[in-house]
Amino acid sequence: MAETESARAYVLESAPIMAIIAAPVAKATVFLIPDMKSNLNMGDKKNLDSAQSAGAGSNQMWGGRFAAAPDALMERINASIGFDKALYAQDIAGSIAHARMLGNAGILSDDDVTEICDGLAAIEAEIEAGTFDFRAELEDIHMNIEARLTDRIGDAAGRLHTARSRNDQVATDFRLWVRDAVDAADAALAGLQTALIDQAEAHADWVMPGFTHLQAAQPVTAGHHLLAYVEMFGRDRGRLTDARARLNESPLGAGALAGTSFPIDRNATAKALGFDRPTANSLDSVSDRDFVLEYLAAAAICAGHLSRLGEELVIWSSAQFRFARLSDSFSTGSSMMPQKRNPDAAELIRGKTGRMIGAFVALTTVMKGLPLAYSKDMQEDKESVFDAADTLLVCVAAATGMIADLTFDRDRLAAAAGEGFTTATDLADWLVREAGVPFRESHHITGRVVALAEAQGCGLEDMSLDDLTAIDDRITAGVFDVLGVDNSVRSRKSYGGTAPDNVRAQVAAARERFLK
Question: Which H or E element spans position 284?
Fold first, then answer.
């Protein structure tokens, strides 16, 4: 493209931003954002000449107050279409609901409402077909859609924005988007719980070591261990459900910040968009992003749970543990070491936690100290949320696949369950229950037994009765009924305990609580 002294167009892939800032650039320079070319698979190919000429005058959407176009850097920092185009479906749904309400209130004619709604439906079809031309100089998804609607239907499009501001418009769009994200995350987590519950049922009586401090502690069953994650992800779903209930109020009709003088029906638009009610305060309506923060907080906590699961899969599948084997579908090899089976999916789940926690921290930082009502800072509320939502879904999907395909080594689990004197607590409990020994004393006695077993190089169940009674004569042959790992797990029958019969009951209860 030819350069002139008055204007240039830069594609940022080939012109670093610092070089652009340093260059002598006229006010009408147009910057094209690479995200708009790379991230949207909807045919948004940019025409540099038309973009250049579009920047030559004031912005047609809000430019009545201004005589000249914005500085090129202002356009670069101000445009959000590179990411908020993700809101197109929500924006169109909100506009259709708004237009119909205006028609019912007698603010728009029936003909205008029909033209607007038909035009918006056609625009949605264009976007989904990949033929819509997203334009940076129009800033955002709202103005891009409105400009295209004007191209299609003329003056009627200009009446759509009656009794509405971009402030309440974007707040509505974003609530709808986050609500969809919450529902998607909940459904995905239900799938992960299903995989965990199925595996727990299949391994209800497979004994393995339970750990504290990553040291063998007490025998548990593999099914019991997997059900612990079912509970974690159940709490995550509960947090998402709570967040959804609070976000499900409609800001539409709050205007820029003070409401509107038109006789609108906010209850009607709220109902049309599936909200429970309209928001109660117009200032709060356009400045609130708690609904995003709650979603991100729930996602961040969920990411922590996924990370813990990923870590355990990494450990269990290692050559040193050999508790379980990940399928080929979720393992990778090494470019140098042919023997390697790397648990990359589990490691990536663990690593991506930082992105989701970072998104929450980023938005809390953006929102702190903002005066009421809307400030442009709040444009920074979307990119990290979109990324966090995508990351959460791919991590949950990967975890679901890994769990569904996971195979355990029963012999290795059982052997490891007995290592590290994991039935020592059973001995201490037996002394309390059968010999009436105070627990603190039984703890001391058991410690001496463990020390002797360690010196002899044997397990507690392999010690002779003479050795045991030499330490405390209240020990009888009945103690051997509790010292094996199978006996140990069968004895843990308290509610929530690891006994196989308990696990089977917990499996049934989990299906009822989480999957019905």
Answer: helix 282-287
